[in-house]
Here is the input.
Amino acid sequence: MQKLAIVGGGVSGLSLAYYLQNDYEITVFEKENWGGKAYTQKIDNYLMEEGVNGFLSNSPKTLELCEEIGIKPIKANENAKKRFIFDDKLIEIPTKPLDFIKSDIMSFNGKLRLLKEFFVKPKCEEESVEEFATRRLGKEFTQKMMVPMLAGIYASTPSKTSMSAAFPKLKKIECEYGSLFKGMIKLKRGGQPTGELHSFEYGMSQFIEQLKSKTKANFVNEEIKDISQLNGFDKVVLAVPSYEAAKILKRYEKLSKLLRQIDYNPVAIVGFDYEEIKPIGFGILSIKEKSLGILMDKYIFPNRNGIRVMVGGARYPNIKNLSEDKIIEIAKKDVEKMTNAKNPKFSWIKMHKNAIPNYSLGHQKLIEEIFDEAKKIDIILAGNAYKGVSFNDCIKNSFELAKELKNEKIVN
Ligand SMILES: Cc1cc2nc3c(=O)[nH]c(=O)nc-3n(C[C@H](O)[C@H](O)[C@H](O)COP(=O)(O)OP(=O)(O)OC[C@H]3O[C@@H](n4cnc5c(N)ncnc54)[C@H](O)[C@@H]3O)c2cc1C
Here is the structure.
Protein backbone atom coordinates (compact mmCIF):
# COMPACT_ATOMS: atom_id res chain seq x y z
CA MET A 1 0.00 0.00 0.00
CA GLN A 2 1.20 3.51 -0.78
CA LYS A 3 1.98 5.78 2.15
CA LEU A 4 -0.09 8.97 2.37
CA ALA A 5 0.66 11.93 4.66
CA ILE A 6 -2.20 14.27 5.47
CA VAL A 7 -1.07 17.45 7.20
CA GLY A 8 -3.89 19.09 9.19
CA GLY A 9 -6.36 17.35 11.48
CA GLY A 10 -9.33 19.64 10.86
CA VAL A 11 -12.56 18.32 9.34
CA SER A 12 -11.01 18.45 5.83
CA GLY A 13 -7.97 16.34 6.70
CA LEU A 14 -9.84 13.91 8.96
CA SER A 15 -12.72 13.26 6.55
CA LEU A 16 -10.20 12.70 3.75
CA ALA A 17 -8.36 10.15 5.93
CA TYR A 18 -11.69 8.42 6.63
CA TYR A 19 -12.60 8.16 2.94
CA LEU A 20 -9.14 6.84 1.97
CA GLN A 21 -8.44 4.53 4.91
CA ASN A 22 -8.74 1.32 2.87
CA ASP A 23 -6.66 2.59 -0.06
CA TYR A 24 -3.55 4.03 1.61
CA GLU A 25 -1.45 3.61 4.72
CA ILE A 26 -2.28 7.01 6.23
CA THR A 27 -0.56 9.28 8.76
CA VAL A 28 -2.36 12.47 9.84
CA PHE A 29 -0.26 15.24 11.39
CA GLU A 30 -1.92 17.84 13.64
CA LYS A 31 -0.04 20.60 15.45
CA GLU A 32 -2.77 21.70 17.89
CA ASN A 33 -6.30 20.38 18.43
CA TRP A 34 -7.90 17.57 16.45
CA GLY A 35 -10.83 19.22 14.68
CA GLY A 36 -9.10 22.58 14.00
CA LYS A 37 -11.91 25.14 13.73
CA ALA A 38 -14.41 22.43 14.72
CA TYR A 39 -13.44 22.24 18.40
CA THR A 40 -15.58 22.41 21.53
CA GLN A 41 -14.36 23.59 24.92
CA LYS A 42 -16.14 22.44 28.08
CA ILE A 43 -15.91 24.89 30.97
CA ASP A 44 -18.07 24.08 34.04
CA ASN A 45 -21.53 23.49 32.59
CA TYR A 46 -20.87 25.48 29.40
CA LEU A 47 -20.03 24.05 25.96
CA MET A 48 -18.25 26.73 23.97
CA GLU A 49 -17.56 26.17 20.30
CA GLU A 50 -14.26 27.77 19.26
CA GLY A 51 -15.47 27.88 15.65
CA VAL A 52 -18.17 25.94 13.82
CA ASN A 53 -21.58 26.25 15.37
CA GLY A 54 -23.33 23.71 13.16
CA PHE A 55 -24.15 22.75 9.61
CA LEU A 56 -27.19 22.82 7.33
CA SER A 57 -28.87 19.55 6.38
CA ASN A 58 -28.85 20.44 2.66
CA SER A 59 -25.54 18.73 1.89
CA PRO A 60 -26.10 14.93 1.72
CA LYS A 61 -22.41 14.04 2.17
CA THR A 62 -22.29 15.33 5.76
CA LEU A 63 -25.41 13.41 6.80
CA GLU A 64 -24.16 10.27 5.02
CA LEU A 65 -20.83 10.53 6.83
CA CYS A 66 -22.63 10.89 10.19
CA GLU A 67 -24.61 7.75 9.47
CA GLU A 68 -21.55 5.79 8.34
CA ILE A 69 -19.58 6.60 11.49
CA GLY A 70 -22.61 6.07 13.75
CA ILE A 71 -23.30 9.53 15.16
CA LYS A 72 -26.72 11.16 15.19
CA PRO A 73 -26.79 14.91 14.55
CA ILE A 74 -29.34 16.95 16.49
CA LYS A 75 -31.61 19.48 14.85
CA ALA A 76 -31.73 23.01 16.24
CA ASN A 77 -35.07 23.63 17.92
CA GLU A 78 -37.84 25.93 16.61
CA ASN A 79 -36.18 29.01 18.17
CA ALA A 80 -33.52 28.79 15.44
CA LYS A 81 -36.06 30.01 12.89
CA LYS A 82 -36.14 33.43 14.53
CA ARG A 83 -33.24 35.54 13.32
CA PHE A 84 -32.59 39.22 13.97
CA ILE A 85 -30.69 42.16 12.53
CA PHE A 86 -29.49 45.08 14.63
CA ASP A 87 -29.79 48.35 12.74
CA ASP A 88 -29.88 50.80 15.66
CA LYS A 89 -32.81 48.68 16.83
CA LEU A 90 -33.63 44.97 16.74
CA ILE A 91 -35.59 43.82 13.70
CA GLU A 92 -36.74 40.24 13.17
CA ILE A 93 -35.81 38.99 9.70
CA PRO A 94 -39.04 38.18 7.90
CA THR A 95 -39.24 34.69 6.42
CA LYS A 96 -42.31 35.09 4.19
CA PRO A 97 -42.72 37.57 1.32
CA LEU A 98 -45.81 39.17 2.87
CA ASP A 99 -44.02 39.66 6.21
CA PHE A 100 -41.10 41.19 4.33
CA ILE A 101 -43.39 43.75 2.68
CA LYS A 102 -44.94 44.63 6.06
CA SER A 103 -41.65 44.75 8.04
CA ASP A 104 -39.58 47.88 8.62
CA ILE A 105 -36.36 46.09 7.67
CA MET A 106 -36.11 48.33 4.58
CA SER A 107 -37.75 51.59 3.44
CA PHE A 108 -40.70 51.58 1.03
CA ASN A 109 -38.43 52.80 -1.80
CA GLY A 110 -35.85 50.12 -0.99
CA LYS A 111 -38.53 47.43 -1.26
CA LEU A 112 -39.88 48.92 -4.49
CA ARG A 113 -36.36 48.87 -5.95
CA LEU A 114 -36.28 45.08 -5.49
CA LEU A 115 -38.97 44.70 -8.16
CA LYS A 116 -36.60 46.18 -10.75
CA GLU A 117 -34.49 43.05 -10.34
CA PHE A 118 -36.62 41.25 -12.92
CA PHE A 119 -35.43 43.72 -15.57
CA VAL A 120 -31.73 44.19 -14.72
CA LYS A 121 -29.50 42.73 -17.46
CA PRO A 122 -27.30 39.83 -16.35
CA LYS A 123 -23.54 40.42 -16.12
CA CYS A 124 -21.70 37.14 -16.23
CA GLU A 125 -18.24 38.27 -15.19
CA GLU A 126 -16.19 38.58 -12.03
CA GLU A 127 -17.46 41.24 -9.62
CA SER A 128 -17.70 41.86 -5.89
CA VAL A 129 -20.77 40.95 -3.85
CA GLU A 130 -21.29 44.70 -3.37
CA GLU A 131 -21.32 45.37 -7.14
CA PHE A 132 -23.59 42.38 -7.78
CA ALA A 133 -26.12 43.13 -5.03
CA THR A 134 -26.25 46.89 -5.71
CA ARG A 135 -26.68 46.34 -9.45
CA ARG A 136 -29.42 43.75 -9.06
CA LEU A 137 -31.16 44.61 -5.79
CA GLY A 138 -30.22 48.19 -4.92
CA LYS A 139 -27.97 49.98 -2.47
CA GLU A 140 -30.28 49.68 0.51
CA PHE A 141 -30.61 45.90 0.17
CA THR A 142 -26.81 45.62 0.01
CA GLN A 143 -26.40 47.71 3.14
CA LYS A 144 -29.23 46.21 5.20
CA MET A 145 -29.04 42.55 4.14
CA MET A 146 -25.72 41.72 2.49
CA VAL A 147 -23.48 43.52 5.01
CA PRO A 148 -24.77 41.41 7.95
CA MET A 149 -24.93 38.24 5.85
CA LEU A 150 -21.28 38.53 4.72
CA ALA A 151 -20.25 39.23 8.31
CA GLY A 152 -22.13 36.15 9.53
CA ILE A 153 -20.85 33.69 6.93
CA TYR A 154 -17.40 34.95 5.91
CA ALA A 155 -16.55 37.54 8.60
CA SER A 156 -16.05 39.75 5.56
CA THR A 157 -17.68 42.69 3.76
CA PRO A 158 -19.51 42.78 0.39
CA SER A 159 -16.83 44.99 -1.20
CA LYS A 160 -14.02 42.54 -0.25
CA THR A 161 -15.77 39.38 -1.48
CA SER A 162 -16.01 37.82 -4.93
CA MET A 163 -19.62 36.99 -5.87
CA SER A 164 -18.75 33.97 -8.00
CA ALA A 165 -16.44 32.48 -5.37
CA ALA A 166 -18.67 33.12 -2.34
CA PHE A 167 -22.13 32.55 -3.86
CA PRO A 168 -21.56 30.51 -7.04
CA LYS A 169 -25.16 29.21 -7.14
CA LEU A 170 -26.70 32.71 -7.16
CA LYS A 171 -24.28 33.91 -9.84
CA LYS A 172 -25.22 30.86 -11.92
CA ILE A 173 -28.94 31.58 -11.53
CA GLU A 174 -28.37 35.15 -12.77
CA CYS A 175 -26.53 33.92 -15.86
CA GLU A 176 -28.91 31.06 -16.66
CA TYR A 177 -32.24 32.76 -16.02
CA GLY A 178 -31.33 36.44 -16.55
CA SER A 179 -32.70 37.38 -13.12
CA LEU A 180 -32.50 35.98 -9.56
CA PHE A 181 -36.25 36.26 -8.99
CA LYS A 182 -37.11 34.64 -12.34
CA GLY A 183 -34.67 31.82 -11.58
CA MET A 184 -35.99 31.28 -8.06
CA ILE A 185 -39.58 31.16 -9.31
CA LYS A 186 -38.62 28.57 -11.95
CA LEU A 187 -36.62 26.54 -9.44
CA LYS A 188 -39.37 27.00 -6.81
CA ARG A 189 -36.79 28.34 -4.36
CA GLY A 190 -37.20 31.13 -1.81
CA GLY A 191 -34.45 33.34 -0.45
CA GLN A 192 -34.16 31.26 2.74
CA PRO A 193 -31.46 28.63 3.39
CA THR A 194 -32.66 25.28 2.03
CA GLY A 195 -31.55 23.12 4.95
CA GLU A 196 -32.09 22.99 8.69
CA LEU A 197 -29.35 23.75 11.19
CA HIS A 198 -27.82 20.73 12.92
CA SER A 199 -25.03 20.06 15.41
CA PHE A 200 -24.24 17.35 17.98
CA GLU A 201 -25.47 16.90 21.53
CA TYR A 202 -22.01 17.58 23.03
CA GLY A 203 -20.73 19.90 20.33
CA MET A 204 -18.64 19.56 17.19
CA SER A 205 -15.77 17.78 18.98
CA GLN A 206 -18.10 14.82 19.55
CA PHE A 207 -18.28 14.36 15.77
CA ILE A 208 -14.50 14.76 15.38
CA GLU A 209 -13.75 12.15 18.07
CA GLN A 210 -16.20 9.71 16.48
CA LEU A 211 -14.72 10.30 13.02
CA LYS A 212 -11.20 9.64 14.35
CA SER A 213 -12.33 6.50 16.14
CA LYS A 214 -13.74 5.10 12.87
CA THR A 215 -10.60 5.89 10.83
CA LYS A 216 -7.67 3.52 10.43
CA ALA A 217 -4.67 5.88 10.43
CA ASN A 218 -1.68 6.95 12.52
CA PHE A 219 -2.64 10.16 14.29
CA VAL A 220 0.47 12.15 15.15
CA ASN A 221 0.53 15.38 17.17
CA GLU A 222 3.34 17.16 15.38
CA GLU A 223 3.83 20.41 13.48
CA ILE A 224 5.15 20.02 9.93
CA LYS A 225 7.46 22.94 9.28
CA ASP A 226 8.98 21.90 5.98
CA ILE A 227 7.98 19.53 3.22
CA SER A 228 11.29 17.66 3.61
CA GLN A 229 9.91 16.13 6.86
CA LEU A 230 7.57 14.08 4.64
CA ASN A 231 10.19 12.58 2.33
CA GLY A 232 9.27 9.00 3.29
CA PHE A 233 5.70 9.30 1.93
CA ASP A 234 4.45 8.48 -1.59
CA LYS A 235 1.79 11.20 -1.56
CA VAL A 236 1.24 14.35 0.50
CA VAL A 237 -1.96 16.29 1.10
CA LEU A 238 -1.73 19.65 2.86
CA ALA A 239 -5.12 20.19 4.51
CA VAL A 240 -3.94 23.27 6.42
CA PRO A 241 -4.76 26.98 6.02
CA SER A 242 -3.10 28.38 2.87
CA TYR A 243 -0.63 30.57 4.81
CA GLU A 244 0.55 27.41 6.63
CA ALA A 245 0.88 25.57 3.31
CA ALA A 246 2.97 28.54 2.08
CA LYS A 247 5.37 28.07 5.02
CA ILE A 248 5.66 24.30 4.52
CA LEU A 249 6.32 24.85 0.79
CA LYS A 250 8.64 27.87 1.17
CA ARG A 251 11.29 26.30 -1.06
CA TYR A 252 8.81 26.51 -3.98
CA GLU A 253 8.84 30.29 -4.20
CA LYS A 254 6.20 30.82 -6.86
CA LEU A 255 3.63 28.52 -5.24
CA SER A 256 4.37 29.83 -1.78
CA LYS A 257 3.88 33.42 -2.98
CA LEU A 258 0.55 32.55 -4.62
CA LEU A 259 -0.66 30.81 -1.45
CA ARG A 260 0.19 33.89 0.61
CA GLN A 261 -2.14 35.97 -1.57
CA ILE A 262 -5.18 34.42 0.14
CA ASP A 263 -6.08 36.80 2.99
CA TYR A 264 -7.60 35.66 6.27
CA ASN A 265 -9.95 37.67 8.50
CA PRO A 266 -9.41 37.67 12.25
CA VAL A 267 -12.34 36.82 14.55
CA ALA A 268 -12.54 36.66 18.33
CA ILE A 269 -15.26 34.46 19.80
CA VAL A 270 -16.43 35.74 23.18
CA GLY A 271 -18.72 33.56 25.29
CA PHE A 272 -21.05 34.99 27.96
CA ASP A 273 -23.96 33.97 30.09
CA TYR A 274 -26.55 36.29 31.63
CA GLU A 275 -29.37 35.78 34.15
CA GLU A 276 -31.70 36.96 31.43
CA ILE A 277 -31.10 37.76 27.78
CA LYS A 278 -33.52 38.30 24.92
CA PRO A 279 -34.45 37.85 22.10
CA ILE A 280 -34.95 34.11 22.13
CA GLY A 281 -33.84 32.93 18.71
CA PHE A 282 -30.87 31.88 16.59
CA GLY A 283 -29.10 35.18 17.02
CA ILE A 284 -28.50 38.73 15.89
CA LEU A 285 -26.37 40.03 13.02
CA SER A 286 -25.20 43.62 13.19
CA ILE A 287 -24.67 46.17 10.42
CA LYS A 288 -21.97 48.43 11.83
CA GLU A 289 -20.83 47.26 15.28
CA LYS A 290 -17.39 45.76 15.95
CA SER A 291 -19.27 42.67 17.10
CA LEU A 292 -20.47 41.09 13.87
CA GLY A 293 -23.17 39.09 15.58
CA ILE A 294 -24.43 37.24 18.64
CA LEU A 295 -25.23 33.53 18.55
CA MET A 296 -27.83 32.53 21.13
CA ASP A 297 -26.48 28.98 21.46
CA LYS A 298 -28.36 28.26 24.67
CA TYR A 299 -31.73 28.76 23.03
CA ILE A 300 -31.19 26.43 20.09
CA PHE A 301 -29.04 23.47 21.16
CA PRO A 302 -28.91 21.48 24.45
CA ASN A 303 -25.96 21.66 26.89
CA ARG A 304 -24.57 24.95 25.55
CA ASN A 305 -25.96 27.21 28.32
CA GLY A 306 -24.30 30.39 27.05
CA ILE A 307 -24.21 32.78 24.11
CA ARG A 308 -21.27 33.65 21.84
CA VAL A 309 -20.31 36.96 20.22
CA MET A 310 -18.21 37.13 17.00
CA VAL A 311 -15.99 40.22 17.06
CA GLY A 312 -13.77 41.73 14.33
CA GLY A 313 -13.65 40.26 10.84
CA ALA A 314 -12.84 42.38 7.80
CA ARG A 315 -15.03 45.11 9.31
CA TYR A 316 -12.64 45.54 12.25
CA PRO A 317 -9.34 43.75 11.56
CA ASN A 318 -7.55 45.66 14.33
CA ILE A 319 -9.15 43.17 16.72
CA LYS A 320 -6.05 41.00 16.40
CA ASN A 321 -3.90 43.68 18.08
CA LEU A 322 -6.10 44.07 21.16
CA SER A 323 -5.79 42.35 24.53
CA GLU A 324 -8.34 39.70 25.50
CA ASP A 325 -9.71 41.99 28.26
CA LYS A 326 -10.26 44.80 25.78
CA ILE A 327 -12.06 42.48 23.32
CA ILE A 328 -14.32 41.15 26.11
CA GLU A 329 -15.16 44.78 27.00
CA ILE A 330 -16.10 45.54 23.35
CA ALA A 331 -18.28 42.42 23.15
CA LYS A 332 -19.95 43.18 26.50
CA LYS A 333 -20.86 46.74 25.42
CA ASP A 334 -22.21 45.53 22.07
CA VAL A 335 -24.36 42.85 23.74
CA GLU A 336 -25.75 45.51 26.09
CA LYS A 337 -26.48 47.83 23.15
CA MET A 338 -28.21 45.11 21.12
CA THR A 339 -30.11 43.27 23.89
CA ASN A 340 -29.98 45.44 27.07
CA ALA A 341 -28.44 42.48 28.98
CA LYS A 342 -25.88 43.60 31.60
CA ASN A 343 -23.32 42.01 33.95
CA PRO A 344 -22.56 38.57 32.48
CA LYS A 345 -22.11 35.84 35.10
CA PHE A 346 -19.63 33.95 32.90
CA SER A 347 -17.15 35.04 30.24
CA TRP A 348 -14.70 33.24 27.96
CA ILE A 349 -12.69 34.10 24.84
CA LYS A 350 -10.99 32.40 21.89
CA MET A 351 -8.96 34.53 19.48
CA HIS A 352 -8.50 33.36 15.87
CA LYS A 353 -5.93 35.73 14.34
CA ASN A 354 -6.54 34.04 10.99
CA ALA A 355 -10.07 32.72 11.29
CA ILE A 356 -11.62 32.47 7.84
CA PRO A 357 -10.12 32.80 4.35
CA ASN A 358 -11.39 35.81 2.43
CA TYR A 359 -12.60 34.87 -1.04
CA SER A 360 -11.48 38.16 -2.64
CA LEU A 361 -11.98 39.35 -6.22
CA GLY A 362 -10.16 36.98 -8.57
CA HIS A 363 -10.23 34.13 -6.02
CA GLN A 364 -11.18 31.42 -8.52
CA LYS A 365 -8.44 32.44 -10.97
CA LEU A 366 -5.90 32.49 -8.16
CA ILE A 367 -6.99 29.00 -7.06
CA GLU A 368 -6.54 27.66 -10.61
CA GLU A 369 -2.96 29.04 -10.67
CA ILE A 370 -2.24 27.59 -7.22
CA PHE A 371 -3.55 24.14 -8.16
CA ASP A 372 -1.56 24.15 -11.43
CA GLU A 373 1.66 24.98 -9.57
CA ALA A 374 0.96 22.39 -6.85
CA LYS A 375 0.39 19.71 -9.48
CA LYS A 376 3.87 20.35 -10.94
CA ILE A 377 5.46 19.28 -7.64
CA ASP A 378 2.91 16.53 -6.92
CA ILE A 379 1.46 18.21 -3.83
CA ILE A 380 -2.26 18.04 -3.14
CA LEU A 381 -4.01 20.95 -1.44
CA ALA A 382 -7.23 20.60 0.55
CA GLY A 383 -9.16 22.60 3.12
CA ASN A 384 -11.39 25.62 3.32
CA ALA A 385 -9.03 28.11 1.65
CA TYR A 386 -9.94 27.07 -1.86
CA LYS A 387 -13.42 25.85 -2.83
CA GLY A 388 -15.85 26.61 -0.02
CA VAL A 389 -15.58 27.55 3.65
CA SER A 390 -18.50 25.76 5.25
CA PHE A 391 -18.21 22.54 7.25
CA ASN A 392 -20.38 20.90 4.56
CA ASP A 393 -18.09 22.17 1.77
CA CYS A 394 -15.04 20.75 3.54
CA ILE A 395 -16.59 17.25 3.78
CA LYS A 396 -17.94 17.31 0.21
CA ASN A 397 -14.59 18.50 -1.18
CA SER A 398 -12.68 15.82 0.75
CA PHE A 399 -15.08 13.16 -0.55
CA GLU A 400 -14.47 14.31 -4.13
CA LEU A 401 -10.72 14.50 -3.62
CA ALA A 402 -10.76 10.96 -2.22
CA LYS A 403 -12.58 9.76 -5.35
CA GLU A 404 -9.89 11.40 -7.50
CA LEU A 405 -7.15 9.80 -5.45
CA LYS A 406 -8.81 6.42 -5.91
CA ASN A 407 -8.92 7.19 -9.65
CA GLU A 408 -12.67 6.95 -9.66
CA LYS A 409 -15.02 9.19 -11.59
CA ILE A 410 -16.28 12.19 -9.59
CA VAL A 411 -20.04 11.99 -9.14
CA ASN A 412 -21.65 15.34 -8.28
C1 LIG B 1 -15.19 31.30 14.22
C2 LIG B 1 -15.65 30.40 13.11
C3 LIG B 1 -16.96 29.99 13.07
C4 LIG B 1 -17.39 29.14 12.03
N1 LIG B 1 -18.68 28.72 12.03
C5 LIG B 1 -19.10 27.86 11.07
C6 LIG B 1 -20.42 27.34 11.09
O1 LIG B 1 -21.19 27.60 12.00
N2 LIG B 1 -20.79 26.51 10.07
C7 LIG B 1 -19.95 26.16 9.06
O2 LIG B 1 -20.36 25.43 8.15
N3 LIG B 1 -18.67 26.62 9.05
C8 LIG B 1 -18.24 27.46 10.01
N4 LIG B 1 -16.94 27.91 10.00
C9 LIG B 1 -16.05 27.48 8.93
C10 LIG B 1 -15.51 26.08 9.23
O3 LIG B 1 -15.23 26.01 10.56
C11 LIG B 1 -14.21 25.81 8.58
O4 LIG B 1 -14.25 26.14 7.24
C12 LIG B 1 -13.77 24.34 8.68
O5 LIG B 1 -13.95 23.84 9.99
C13 LIG B 1 -12.34 24.31 8.24
O6 LIG B 1 -11.84 23.01 8.30
P1 LIG B 1 -10.40 22.67 7.69
O7 LIG B 1 -10.09 21.30 8.09
O8 LIG B 1 -10.39 23.00 6.24
O9 LIG B 1 -9.39 23.71 8.38
P2 LIG B 1 -8.99 23.85 9.92
O10 LIG B 1 -10.14 23.56 10.79
O11 LIG B 1 -8.34 25.18 10.02
O12 LIG B 1 -7.93 22.68 10.12
C14 LIG B 1 -6.59 22.79 9.74
C15 LIG B 1 -5.76 22.08 10.80
O13 LIG B 1 -4.41 22.07 10.38
C16 LIG B 1 -3.60 22.22 11.55
N5 LIG B 1 -2.30 22.71 11.09
C17 LIG B 1 -2.01 23.94 10.59
N6 LIG B 1 -0.70 24.01 10.26
C18 LIG B 1 -0.16 22.81 10.57
C19 LIG B 1 1.17 22.29 10.46
N7 LIG B 1 2.16 23.02 9.97
N8 LIG B 1 1.40 21.01 10.86
C20 LIG B 1 0.37 20.24 11.37
N9 LIG B 1 -0.89 20.72 11.51
C21 LIG B 1 -1.16 21.98 11.10
C22 LIG B 1 -4.38 23.21 12.38
O14 LIG B 1 -3.98 23.16 13.74
C23 LIG B 1 -5.81 22.75 12.16
O15 LIG B 1 -6.23 21.82 13.13
C24 LIG B 1 -16.48 28.73 11.05
C25 LIG B 1 -15.14 29.13 11.11
C26 LIG B 1 -14.72 29.94 12.16
C27 LIG B 1 -13.27 30.33 12.23
Observations:
- The domain at 3-36+59-66+204-262+360-405 is CATH 3.50.50.60 (FAD/NAD(P)-binding domain).
- The chain has 16 helices and 17 strands.
